[in-house]
Amino acid sequence: MATVLGCIADDFTGATDLAALLSRSGVPVSLRIGVPAEDDIDTAAFEVIALKIRTVPAKDAVDQARAAFQWLKKAGATRFFWKYCSTFDSTAEGNIGPVAEMLMDELGAKQTIYCPAFPENGRSIFMGHLFVGEQLLSESPMKDHPLTPMRDSSLVRLLQPQVQRKVGLANRLVVAQGGATLRARLDALASEGVGHMVTDAVSDDDLKTIAEASADMPLTTGGSAIAGQLARFYVEQGLTSAPAGKLSAQVPEGGQVVFSGSCSAMTRRQVAYYAGKNASLRLDPVALEDGGTGAAREWLQQQAANQPKLIFATAEPEEVRKAQETLGLEKASYIVEQALAGLAKQAFRNGARRFVVAGGETSGAITQALGITRLEIGPEIAPGVPWVFADVEGERVALALKSGNFGSETFFEDAFKLLEAA
Ligand code: ADP
């Protein structure tokens, strides 16, 4: 099938979140991990390419995103979406702005929008300021993120240092006046050379208005929620259609295991809840640096394959800071990611076929270690977190790849229950 919408996501859980919300339109979605081979012509109407470029140097991010763009263009895409986190995770160097500007240049686009809002998950934008629930982003737990601490809430201020063109705002008062007014505002600012428009959104109705006003743009950017509304709009416009009937995903049998490398506030609650009820093992990066993963491997080997279990490096901000001071930020992250990835491979060899993974970077490391390149989207466990299915060494595997703050306290348990019921 010819691709109409080509999406590039800056991390793996972001890509699954995006795929889940696009899937709600009923249109087939295919999720690739990394840029597919040039001769891969088995494409879906909505294609999502998951990259791992949130925290790499801006030049690398731009190069990888360009390669993804070229593949999507060749697949036939006429609209493009650049997906980043609903908490705008980035640094002053990028990579949200630089990738967007590269895509604008490739497409000859004068303007794009920035809409990370995800009202269903409590992410909203008002007067250009991003809120997590009722807190400003800079006062939310995101201020302590190990890799991208967010210490400002103004999207205009966060974005401007990352880009060449001017950044503007379409505030809630404009959005509330409907699609035509918003469109007129976007056009007026485009003619003044404002290339980047932050758009306020506090509800799904706001997102519908923004989708209506930006549906003709070759490039839109933001979180999964605006993409979901754009997808619906593309169907309404007749750009693509949803086939009748639903594909029923086949659920693999086999052991279950949770891996958590996310230190986000919600993950910390999920880990505490699940560890209180199931066998669990805590990994400490400093101990891993000194002693390797031998003890963890032994622990995993001793667990019965069919018993629920949890391996986590999840820690409080104070402990994360200490580990980063001792090892350096990148090394601390790398040690944890590699340890969890190695243990996931071992779990697979021991018969695990149902994996819940908490953490965007962590999910990237684990899917890479398992050699996964393409995912099929299954049922949604929580808004933006679907079960996905993949082949690993010829065996079918189910994965729930959850970014830090998604899901409720019982998410790990809920995820497995949903598979049991499928
Ligand atoms: P999230 O989705 O919550 O942002 P990520 O997996 O993307 O989670 O990022 C969390 C990062 O923190 C990972 O790179 C992980 O390796 C690192 N990390 C996990 N546990 C620790 C720890 N105890 N000390 C230092 N860094 C850690």
CATH fold name of the largest domain, please? Answer: Rossmann fold
Question: What's the mean pLDDT score?
Answer: 95
Count of DSSP-assigned helices: 15
Biggest sheet layout? 15 strands, mixed
Strand residue content: 15-25%
Structure description:
By secondary structure, the protein is α/β, with parallel strands linked by helices. It folds into two domains: 5-236, 3-Layer(aba) Sandwich (Rossmann fold); 255-421, Molybdenum Cofactor Biosythetic Enzyme, Chain A, CATH 3.40.980.20. Helices cover 40% and strands 23% of the residues. The chain has 15 helices and 18 strands. It has helices spanning 12-23, 58-74, 96-107, 155-159, 172-175, 179-191, 204-214, 224-236, 265-275, 285-291, 294-302, 317-327, 329-349, 360-369, 411-421, and strands at residues 5-9, 29-33, 46-50, 79-83, 112-115, 123-126, 129-132, 135-136, 166-170, 194-199, 219-222, 255-260, 279-282, 309-312, 352-358, 374-382, 385-392, 395-402. It has a 15-stranded mixed beta sheet with strand order 9-10-5-11-4-1-3-2-16-17-18-15-12-14-13, with helices on both faces. Strands 6-7-8 form a three-stranded antiparallel beta sheet, with no helix packed on it. A hairpin with a 2-residue loop joins strand 6 (123-126) and strand 7. It is globular and about 65 Å long. The chain starts with a strand and ends with a helix. The mean pLDDT is 95. The chain binds adenosine-5'-diphosphate. Residues 145-147, 261-264, 267, 285, 313, 315, 319-320, 323-324, 332-333, 336-337, 359-362, 403-404 line the site of adenosine-5'-diphosphate (ADP).
